[in-house]
Amino acid sequence: MKGWVQGVVVRAALTAAVLASMVANGAAHAQDRVAKPNDPETQTAVADYNAGNLGAALAEFRKAAERGSRLAEFNYAMMLLNGEGTAVNVDEGKKWLRKAADANMSHAQYVYGKMYDDGEFVGRDPVEAHRWFLKAAEQGHVQAELALANQFLDGRGTERDNKQAFVWYKKAAQGGDMTAQYVTGSFYERGGDGVDKNLNVARAYYAAAAAQGDPAARLKYQQLSAQLRDQKEVKPQ
């Protein structure tokens, strides 16, 4: 995979950016909660992009972006940053990405924050990253919730706050993120930081992560299941 982002992925009329540094294998699909394009030019651009007509898609996304379509702004930005249908143009790409983020598109806010968190195309600035992650997370963007939780846990871009970390891990876990499900389970397993220890709840979160293929979560689920079974079998004297 080349570059920090790998173009514009459109599935079921939803836009997605592939972020190369998101996970260990170097790729992750991050979908914004965006409705189907509601203007004909953006719809045509999506169709042309999917058909591989990148030059046409680029021009159509630009026209729609200039009319204020935030979906087009985001997709046009991604094409510029990746050099799809044109030469790479970082300055213009950042400008249009910021426009989409300012238009309150949660995925654009997340990607813009990730850019600052990673120091890609801009100087690394975890405080600025935190600001944009928070905007996206407050709209329910799962990956932003996870990124925000990590920042609170590490004290990166904000003061370290395990209680706030737990709040955002749990939100991301409830949104289906496997990593957040595991971490939320660990909070419930050990307790503390405002979290009441609850092995049954911990086991449920580990089970959710295990169902998505996390081997460590599967092991924790098995261990807690055995521990809870042993506790149940011990009769009080």
From TrEMBL:
UniProt cross-references to Pfam families, sorted A to Z: Sel1
Keywords tagged on the record: Signal
InterPro entries given in the database record: ISR_Activator (IPR052748), Sel1-like (IPR006597), TPR-like_helical_dom_sf (IPR011990)
Gene3D superfamilies: Tetratricopeptide repeat domain
Signal peptide positions (record): 1-30
UniProt protein name: Sel1 repeat family protein
Organism of origin: Paraburkholderia ginsengisoli
